[in-house]
Amino acid sequence: MNRSALPKSAPTLGAMALAALLMAGCGQAVSQSPATQKAGTAPASASAGSIENCGRTLTFDAAPDRVVAMTPGQSELLVKLGLAHKVVAEAQTKGRKLQPELKARGDVKQLSDQMPPSREVLLGANPDFVYSPTAYEFTAEQGFASIEQLKQAGAEAYIATAGCQERRSKAEVTDILTDIDKIGAVFGAGAKTTAVRDEAATALSAVNKAVAGKQKPTVVELFVEGNSIAAIGAGLEYDMIKTAGGDNLFSPSDEAFATFFSALISPETLVQKNPEVIVFTTLDKAHEEATRTFLKEKFPQVAAVKSDRLVAVNSDDVMPGTWGNIRAVEQIAKGLHPEAF
């Protein structure tokens, strides 16, 4: 790896701003359970009165009744687990409509659009369980309710395994299996937990089988905002590309990604890397089109742009702890190996 092609370690103001955007807007922020359950292990007990999450022990006298999902992706997983009747609110909706199962309830609130809800708004929903993709949603300095404040109000805060602080840069797609097991245990979802876990594991196994033995195209994953380009070189998104049968040209071993999974890169770096495929995350359809236009206008000489191998992935689907993680792997794999699907 040519480290001279990577951004310097000292963050610029632009890098810090983009990192904040990635954390709040794309759900790529950051806290870890000391152990991650791997595919193929037995699911957690449905009668669990306590679980470990991001180095904390969460305790429950009974299954929670008022759940706030901190993104629509968290809502989706809860609905798949048969818990739609427990969800009272979701946040960071980015204009998304409620899922039909939640809309049918008639009383599920949407607490915020682009950012996590304020302390007052979240506590006003009177939750007893909050499911979040990362620890960022509990940053008191940003005006959000902290984990301690939620605890004092009678609510436990569960952070997706792939979004745990110490886990964020080495997370794996299979971390979603841990979340399915643990959340299912908290709510006593029983057979539903097993069914959803099996569905996820089967989907990942199908991707592994489809791409096995195939030549791996070179890939970079980007998030573009204006003229700023951030590359992903570690964590959940890195493992998504690996699982989908791609060779990421950035790596956790690169100095730029030693402490954070994303880093700003220069246009020259992208040209030098010359990936065969570019995967990029999008906030909405307009952002997708803007990114495609930017790449085609600024980098016509890059192989991925020349061959129009640009794979757009919804930013909701790379949020830690969402069913979208499975969907994103399938989508990336089809972009990398269309002949296999």
Automatic annotation (TrEMBL):
InterPro entries hit by this protein: ABC_Transporter_SBP, ABC_transptr_periplasmic_BD
Signal sequence region: 1-29
Fe/B12 periplasmic-binding domain: residues covered: 66-340
Q: Which Pfam families does the UniProt record give?
A: Peripla_BP_2
Keyword field? Signal
Alphabetized Gene3D superfamilies for the sequence: Nitrogenase molybdenum iron protein domain
Q: Which family does it belong to?
A: Belongs to the bacterial solute-binding protein 8 family.
Q: What is this protein called?
A: ABC transporter substrate-binding protein
Q: Which organism is it from?
A: Paenarthrobacter nitroguajacolicus (Arthrobacter nitroguajacolicus)
